[in-house]
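Course exercise 7: structure representation. Students receive a sequence record and must write out the corresponding structure in token form. The form below is the worked example handed out in class, using Fumarylacetoacetase-like C-terminal domain-containing protein (291 residues). Read each field label carefully; the graders check that inputs and outputs are placed in the correct fields and that the protein name is recorded exactly as given.

STUDENT ID: A-19
EXERCISE PROTEIN: Fumarylacetoacetase-like C-terminal domain-containing protein
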Amino acid sequence: MKLVSYKANDEEQGAIEIGGKLIPLLALNDHFHFHYETTVFSLLEKGQYESLKNWYVHEGKEALANPHLPFLEEWVPAPLYRHPRKIWGIGMNYRKGDEDQFASNTVAPVSFMKPDTSLIGPEDLIQIPPLSKNTTAEAELALVIGKTCKEVSEADALDYVAGVAAALDMTEADIHAENLRYLTRAKSFNTFFSFGSELVSLDEYPCLDDIYVTTLQNGEEQHTNRIGAMRYNLAYIVSFHSEVMTLLPGDILLTGTPGAVVLRDGAVVACRISGFSKQLENRAINKEVHA
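STUDENT ANSWER:
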């Protein structure tokens, strides 16, 4: 199942995407006499996501083949939601070249937090901080937690994941270079986390290892890699964080990037992920250039 957040007048609403069109959750409720929450975050928070997905898998695909339903063929994308309880990420997670894919991971991953004040959505502007000469952007696959969990095993971890989303993680790299302990500060500027509009459930993928994540700049592919090249796999990332903290529905875990690009005024950076209908794009702006 693919859920999408879109802008409807002054509100942001949820919908199911099927065949390149949207059926809003409001319309779904009206037509089928359901009582689902109508935003993606409230659907997760109220524990209704699994029920909706089960309906979609067993009945919904066929039911939504009805061409007379009130589908949207055009829409303005919005971030899946704007105020998750947590945004955590890990770094340096993709192997490159001839690195041993079977090497054991004996060191815990580098991790960091981002505040929800850093969150923007598709097509919003990334604001390069004043005097910054080295703001970078990285395409990442984001895990979205679907059910509360604590101290979950790797074997069970993905059962608590609602799906995956596209993300762009920005860093003021000069601050980080000044001192490696400044990583979270370097990643916490306003507009430094772009969150995509699509939530794709894991059952949409025959093999998670074959998902490709790509960083693009100005329409050109800069870095790409597959999930199977990760040092710390998706299940490990969930389990690792749950050892320390309770993970809640809607929490976001960033899983690393195949590579970063340096942003300049006017540059368009994008995240492309296999199985998504659209890539996540944002333009960077340096207000000093336009002062």
